[in-house]
Batch of 2 targets.
Target 1
Amino acid sequence: MHDALTRLGRALRLVLLTALAVLFLIPFYLLLRNGLADEADITAPDWTFFPHRLHWSNLRELFDDPGVPMAHALLNSTLIAVLTTAGTLLPASLAGYGLARIPYRHANAVFYAILGTLLVPAAVTFVPSFVLVSSLGWVSSLRGLIVPTLFSAFACFVFRQYFLGFPRELEDAAQVDGLGYWRTYWRVVVPNSAPVFAAVGVIVFIGAWNAFLWPLVIGQDQDAWTVQVALSAFTTAQTVNLHELFIAAAVSILPLLLVFLLLQRYIVAGVERSGIDD
Amino acid sequence: MPINRRGLLTAGASMALLAGCGSNTGRNEGSSARIPHLSHWYHQYGEPGTEKAVHRYAEAYRKADVRVQWRPGGNYDQQTAAALLTASGPDVFEVNGPTLDQIRGGQVLDLTDLIKDVQGDFNQAVLAPKIHEGRVWGIPQVIDTQLLYYRKSLLDAAGVRPPATLDELVDAARRLTGKKTKGLFLGNDGGGGALAGTPLYAAGLSLITPDGKVGFDDPAAARALAKLRQLYTDKSLLLGAPSDWADPAAFIQGLTAMQWSGLWALPQIKKALGDDFGVLPFPADGPGGRPAVPVGAYAAAISSRSGNHTAARDYVRWLWVERTDFQTDFALSYGFHIPARTSLAAKADKLKDGPAADAVRFTSQHGYAQPLLWTDAGRLAYQDALSRIIKDGADPESQLKAVVRRTRAELDRVGKKP
Amino acid sequence: MPSASRRRRRHHALWFWVFTGPFVAGLVLFTYVPLGWSVFLSFHDAHNTVTPSHFTGLANYRQILGDPAFRSSLATFAVFTAFIVPATYALSLALALAVNRLRFARAFFRSVFFLPTACSYVVAALIWKMSLFNGVRFGLANTVLGWFGAEPVAWLSTTHPPWYWLVIVTVRLWLQTGFYMILFLAGLQRIPARLYEAAALDGARPGWQTFRHITFPALRSTSVAVVLLLVINAFQAFDEFFNLLSNAQGYPPYARPPLVHLYYTALGQGQDLGLGSAGAVVLALIIAVVTVVQGRWFGLGRKEE
């Protein structure tokens, strides 16, 4: 009786999960369905689950579109996301370590000053930031797109929490060997912290890839467009070309999905060990 | 030239950007120091060919190296507004304005002497909002207008004649609504955004009177807006279409029998429907009413933070005053606009017959442009009120009272010397 | 040996700044300077300028707080939060519990629920607006309704009933649930197995009782973090609202959270930067107060003292 109930419960759970999984996958399905159909199929009054014919030529059309430099935008986004990720991890992890481990009278004040910026919506500082960056002469440059976004309080916070829980014995051994903070950090701490770097790195990478408003305003030159900006060029044209829009959207998320699926294991491990939630 | 340049930059873009060579918009630097550099912004036009055309015009100019920037993103006005605060914005830019606060804030240059010889040739309705205290702050490029498109066959089948009054429009939309087709498409928001002040003008009123007072503090305003609510409650309106009113797709796909859209949509509709359509102005309402069509123009303006005022002026005069061939090409070869200068409009063959000719006639007889004094604060309050009236059934009179108050406060603000 | 200890203190201070200096410098330049600038603007009449000269004191604050539209945008935020925070919390916790107990296909389900995290709001809004919830007969939601003979619903423009909330809430649920599910999964992994063994010995039945007395309390710190993050994120909501509801003419008067309101009335085209900054400062203060109160209430930071 009890066993039967458990088995029933388990089956029910699996059915529910499967139903939810289908719901979660529907948007991806719509992206592909519409991206590979022709306009008439998309707007047909009767729903078809698959286009009558798969129009792979939509892809070629997308990359050949003279108005939107999609290939170049992909290149820009990759470059920006990679550099942003690297550029965020370094200062944030150093600061996180300093806050977690080096005794200093005002460490708490510094920590709260950093944490406080999490509460400030980006829109609040948007216009002055833009004016600031433009007075530095960084408009339409990679520097302007990347540098102002590098100082993520969130990343710093996660690193601090993680390093607070880092086994002290390892560091103490290094100190006994006469290594200072700097060398202890690089030789002992960093090599043993891969998961947290991976976890934070992926989150930052996603954020950089998906950023929209800042690249739109800073990337004035078409040569500095990112994928999101290129995508918005499709959505805001006077006449909406649905199949091109959807194939562009599909292309824009593909690289991220790959990164995601490949690194997912590390993200989970990183979150587990980083104590984001402590 | 742009293709070469882009090709080069694609190859070396990453390195160039990294090294910081791309760190400005192209002014003040470069090998040939004698030729000034100018950046010229356009908002993204939907019609194929427009972008190539503006690049072509820029290349034809010999006295400066003009770099065209094509701005996507839908919020072009916000992008230029932010960019005008800095020196890394455009030198020359097209603008759905300039706004009163941009003029008052000294963000754009006075262009009066550039067009003084031909000022009378411009369509006076669209030129008026570019003038503040007798000076011209932007040169109209082309006239855009909006119209009511209707499908002749569907009206015939339902035994409906083209509506001549707002009441007839309400009635027609109801009778044309069927199971798969709606009677009227005024935009996915129910009409508030696309129609804006048009129903007020159709009721014989205005947004701001010529002497600078609120123009819709009148019971006729509430009466006209209540009829838009009627359209909504009748369920005659198409709502939530994948593309909005500016795109003729819903009309062409047969989702609606009538649609409010821009003149720019006319070639596409003609191609898809042949002769099976006609155009109308927004119909008159009430005893003091008259038909109304909104007209407006993107204007060429110069940022006062431009590094080279003289070069920018010379270039704007060359393109938007002297090169009438380019002006005609820009208006008529890609999208479908009316040239901003009456002499050019008169010569345009494309505008001489059929619905296009009707459209031109409506703009000259019934055209109204949003006054310069109709600033953002009042406009936003009015849009909100309109949406609440149409969708929530809010009381038009009390809604309009609040808008009148807001508008008066704003008129007071801008009436003071800065 | 006071001088030796002072030297050591100075040595620590030096290293502290070597480690945190670069980050703090960047934060000051790119966050605190613009923030201070915004505060400065909020006390001035700053139409179309970032270097205003006309000091107006608290006038901007009076105007923004007296603006019913701004106050109603705060109410909109409250409604949105009341929907999205419990919904995301419950769904992500439920998913984590279910996925955690799976014996097979665990990685598959985890991936499926986590995958949307990779999507941008731009892409998600596009799918929701143009395909899933478009208001005509070929939208997926309306197609499904059509199978049951119902009329198409204009999801984003119907205010009675406010269907647009369904669109807004589901898009965010889809995008963010997977991330919080991962947080909960991590929390679940850290619960020692002996707790469950002890509970079983005490006669607690698996299922609700175990969850209520063991799992849920053990997830306390995760829960606190999740709720805090959800509230902060809800406050800063902009992207999906903007991409779903705005059009070339503007933004409807409903479903307008504070950031959207400020963008439309002051920080976008109609550049009343003083007024917009005042609103933004008010908003930041509200977020700070809410977060601190929440933190106190949950006893956050207790561990650090």
Target 2
Amino acid sequence: MVKVTIDGTELEFAAGTSLFDACRTARGEALPHFCYHPDLSVAGVCRLCQVEVEGMPKLTIACNTTVREGMVVHTRSEKVRRAAQQILEMHLINHPVDCPICDQAGECGLQDQYMTYGLYESEVGKSDKVHKAKVQVIGPRVVLDKERCVLCSRCVRFCDEVTRTGELGIFNRGDRAEIGVAPGRQLDNAYSLNTVDICPVGALTSLDFRFKKRVWLLRSTPSLCHGCATGCSVRVDHEAGTVYRLKPRRNPAVNGAWMCDEGRDTYRELHADTRLREPLLRRDGALRPATWPEAWATLAAAAGPAAPLGFAVVSPRQSLEEIALFAHLAAVLGAPAAGVSGGAREADRGEGDDLLRSADRAPNRAALAWLGLDEPAGADLAARVRAARGAVLVYGADPAADAPGWREAVAGRTVIHLGTHRNATAESADIVIPLGAWAEKDGLLVNRQGRVQASRRAIARPGLAQEDWRFLADWLAAAGATEFPASLPDLRRWVAGRVPALAGVDLNALPPEGLVPGAVAAGAGGER
Amino acid sequence: MNQDQYRILSKRFGRRDGHKLAAYEADGGYRALKRAVGELGAPAVREEVKASGLRGRGGAGFPAGVKWGFVPPGAETVYFMVNADESEPGTFKDRYLLDYDPHAVIEGSAISSFAVGAKLCVIYIRGEFGWLVDRVQKAVDEAYAAGYLGRGAFGGAYELEMIVHKGAGAYICGEETGLINSVTGLKGQPSIKPPFPAVSGFLGQPTIVNNVETVAAVPWILEHGAAAYRKFGTEKSPGTKLFSVSGPVRRPGVHEIPLGLPFREFFTDWLGGMADGEELKAVIMGGSSVPVLTAAEAMETALDYESLAAAGTMLGSGGMIIIPQRCDMVELIQVLMHFYWDESCGQCTPCREGTGWLHKIVKRLRRGEGAPEDLALLERVCDGMAGLTICPLADAAVMPMRSFLQRFRPEFEALAAGRRATEPDSRWAREIRS
């Protein structure tokens, strides 16, 4: 540990700590900056984070300085403030200041820092500005505005260091320097939208999000990407019940500051036309809307004390608590239960890579194993369903779409579908129960590292859709079970008590980065 | 007085055959290299050069022997690079060495490489010096053929590979980390320090970059000893220095002088004073990046690192620009600001944006569209650039800008008050006006 005095306060830091990070700790807020990023190499080009270090003749950039014993640093002196203002002014002299039509407005480093360090009258004539190309579509998802760019090189470093695809570069020099795509290429790697996240200004914007919503209207909810077994920490940005985008939430233990482009698209399924908004019951051969009392009455007749349930399957897309409660319900109703993945959406084995994308597109497969549920492969599933007599209950999955022999196995039997979308299984079911999609409820996922993480409810469920655990608990009560949760925390305590791996873990108080039960130094370990 | 007694670096300048191996060897060439490898060994060579007080001739004036000592002890792979990217306006002394005495550069480079333990030496020559690339390459080929370089040299005792690398035309590649990046094949722009190249440079290995003139002095120092070298110059600025002089003096060109020579003496005896009808107005002592001095200031100073620092300027590269009375200082600074705007690599914001802004304000003044506030604005922009960047290019633009403003303020004030500049008469200014 080394002792460093920052703005008059002596603090201790681990040797090797960047002065930038030390200043963030000491100040409670970061130094002004554009080019520094904790997950990229140091470029040292924006020159905004200059601080005064006693004994050094000139101001020094904090990002490329390591703390030393006895260092005395000033970050709020007049000299530092003046340098920051001057450099900010340099950043702005050739900037078009087209904030009213810029998508970044509201989350723009230039705007934020101008309000803190700027507040001067511009002395640059409009005709003196260097103009560069605008609205360059440089890839399937990203738009470049060259004159808004502050040339911090974060996007270039991301493509060089993280994806190692090297599509971007800075071309030309001096004030003619500009970001560009290497000749004959486009920015089309699987992580391209991270460049938009790390762009501190409006130079790189998302084709998908552009002009959809002013960012200051959005509310953010911490959540998890449900796109694959990696379980990247994300932020769900939403307004008035509509999700507009997913952004990565920094989690060094899982995804660093990144997430894949495919994961970002998953918000769209929340608002698909095929969402189930009300219970559906098959009458006269067709699925027709029903009220909840009608649905409950039909359920009790199909799978209750009078008519034992035949077989129950659950998708590894459901949360840990939901799977546990569902398995318990199946047991109470007298049916064997199994996991089933597959279906159109989660075309189970996708393309993976060694960065974040897992070939396993199911976000919670590890939970099945924890809860003792197996996943019969293809034809085995149909055989087991066929062997069991009685109604078939499907939760969150779509075996009718692609499980071999499924349709034959359930022919002539009552199929109950609990889900979110009108998929093939719902279409062929007799009772369809609308439940919440992932962003509409709280839930825990176990990722490929065995890390339990919390996903939180961001928006309301559509129509008459029910919250999953409440529906399952109600059914348990209706089925005469003696053990059923009264609240979600209650449910989590119950789950922790049933899973040996979770012994001693308080599922209601998980750290933001999640935890790997039983793992030594879990926070630091695990694959990225 | 006999000015030839100071010719250490320039003794073959002007000789038709001086660039050939035979002539160089006839003058005793490559004896120092043989002695370094055969008798002295690397530590002794380092000590001798350190004792000589030889300072880097590229501009910064850092002691060469001390710089060599920054290579971490025990480093396995070390690279040595010779900076021949001579691009500072007003500076053309390295070009004479490469042209008239390439073998002195090669021998000096080989000894220096030996001293720091390098097995590969790169001579980086600016792209505009195309014919010198050929000249030096031929000399390198001769040195290989004569057994001074390459496999089997010195019976295998020291086998140095030497590569002549041609730059692609960027001033900033003369900054040592920019040079290393350029050789690596990256964009020619400086890297952030630390790490310093002596610890982590070319391909992440310790790399020493020295100026052409610095290495060219090394053979003489080994031949004659540090004490003999110190007989020239002053205590803190030992040795001789090439000055490349441009402007309307009687004898412009490259002159080798003992450091510490009073400017007045150099001006009168070496340069022969101003040409007929010309009167001295100002002097840029060490290349366009150093602060300008008025004629009166220049006459009171001497040509060594310390005296020039005391006079408020720098010795720099020794690219001396003699400015006559008829020269419009605002026009001249416009030429210089154009240069730095054009050559800024664009990495660091204060330099990328500041050089262009300075250039625009000066152009605006000369168009007669300036305002009195513009002079304060120029100073403010300079304040926002100086000392705030990775490399000294921003300072290199600020130093002339500030000194021109400070020492020739009335010329700026006249323009700021609305007078339109007289039509630019120089070829440069005509080109720049567009």
